[in-house]
Write a structure and sequence with these properties.
The chain has about 400 residues and is an all-alpha fold. It has one domain (about 5-390). The protein has helices at about 5-10, 15-40, 45-75, 75-80, 85-90, 95-100, 100-105, 105-110, 115-120, 125-130, 135-160, 170-195, 210-235, 240, 245-275, 280-285, 295-310, 315-320, 320-345, 355-375, 390-395. The longest helix has about 30 residues, at about 45-75. The radius of gyration is 22 Å and the shape is globular.
Length: about 400
């Protein structure tokens, strides 16, 4: 089989273009509704909803980048079949860079430490803003995080694109040399990013394990997203021939692993803070255990951990894409609920779902998915001239 023929066979099916177009339309309609929300809703509510959507879609972008680097370090066919899905997702970072601008502009409406009147009345806030949290430092650090992620994505994408053209080249040593420090940089950057963007909503409260909950959640959401995309593409060639039950089972196992990791970090934070019983620490949970927020917390324990954990113990469920995708969709929904539980109690003492909490994330998601499927169509679904591709490609074309 000639390289030209292989490239034609491995292009994304027409359904990718259909979903791209529909996602763009949805993004435009909900973006108009979001703009209306700027004028009829308090700026604090708009920006909290905006932060919710931003963290959800940024999490998918960075989670896919982290999975790609993890696969480069560990190897295995489980990552090769989804490599271009991961690359298409992480290449949406330029969109997330642009979408960060409203958060930078509206910082004074979002955080107490950025409000001069709040800082002047609180000695603790004055100490924090002098040493760390201030609008200038917030902006500069955010730029650094985005540049770090952008640099990693640029190199990974550039080298991968070179493997679409002959000759066959093994870039695995190059990928490993970048991925090892790259994963460390990712964890450090998102850890500080989670502190700056989310934890500082309550600047008087700190938790050292808090950022790791975001790390585990982002990778978990990314694996679930990959499974959903696999389920869509598996109905069409070439993914119908490339995706095997063993690789799908590996993806299910990864979902199970990061569900347990998310639960471990979340429970560890709760246990340590509750055992310490210090007023300045425990009040973060007290706020989320009244006014209806407690039911959301119990729902997370049940449907973000217990139910998916039990379902993913089934070997057969993990080998059947139509069954695994249902679990993936449930977890994606609960990842959004988890972010909502982290962000919104800082704005409302009682459980309240504002219409912007749904409209803005959907608007961002429409543009994000349109960009994702645009990236996915731009390259073959496998790097044709990667040495490992033959192990998947040849059986698919026998």
């Amino acid at each position: 089989m000639s390289p030209a023929r292989v490239n034609i066979d491995l292009l994304a099916p027409p359904v990718a273009h259909t979903i791209q177009r529909r996602s763009l339309y949805i993004g435009l309609v909900f973006a108009v509704l979001s703009v209306i929300g700027i004028f009829i809703s308090p700026p604090e509510q708009f920006l909290h909803s905006y932060l919710l959507g931003y963290m959800a879609w940024l999490g998918l972008t960075l989670g896919c980048m982290a999975i790609l680097m993890l696969q480069y370090l560990t190897g295995g066919k489980w990552g090769l079949v989804i490599r271009r899905i991961l690359e298409a997702a992480m290449q949406t970072l330029p969109l997330m860079m642009v979408l960060f601008v409203p958060l930078a502009v509206g910082v004074h409406h979002l955080y107490d430490w950025a409000r001069p009147e709040k800082v002047a009345a609180d000695k603790h806030l004055r100490e924090i803003t002098r040493d760390f949290l201030n609008p200038t430092g917030f902006g500069l650090r955010s730029i650094i995080y985005l540049v770090i992620w952008g640099g990693l994505i640029y190199l990974l994408s550039r080298w991968s694109a070179q493997q679409d053209d002959p000759p066959v080249r093994d870039f695995s040593p190059r990928y490993k040399r970048l991925s090892a420090p790259g994963l460390i940089l990712y964890v450090f950057a998102i850890s500080f990013g989670a502190i700056d963007w989310v934890m500082s909503l309550d600047a008087r409260w700190i938790s050292t394990i808090y950022p790791l909950i975001f790390v585990a959640g982002q990778v978990l959401a990314a694996f679930c997203f990959v499974v959903v995309v696999e389920a869509i593409l598996s109905r069409y060639s070439p993914m119908a021939q490339l995706l095997k039950p063993d690789e799908l089972k590996d993806h299910g196992n990864m979902m199970l692993t990061f569900i347990m990791l998310w639960a471990y970090f979340s429970f560890s934070q709760l246990l340590i803070i509750w055992a310490g019983n210090l007023p300045e620490e425990i009040r973060w949970y007290v706020r989320r255990w009244v006014g209806g927020w407690q039911y959301l917390g119990l729902g997370l324990a049940a449907f973000h951990f217990a139910v998916p954990f039990v379902l993913l113990l089934s070997r057969e469920r993990k080998r059947q894409v139509h069954r695994l995708v249902r679990v993936a969709i449930l977890i994606i929904i609960m990842r959004f609920v988890d972010l909502f539980w982290f962000i919104e109690p800082s704005n409302h003492t009682r459980l309240l779902v504002h219409w912007l909490d749904l409209v803005i994330p959907v608007a961002m998601g429409g543009f994000w998915l349109a960009y994702f499927f645009y990236n996915l169509k731009a390259r073959p679904l496998l790097p044709v001239y990667d040495p490992q591709t033959a192990s998947l490609l040849e059986p698919a074309h026998e």
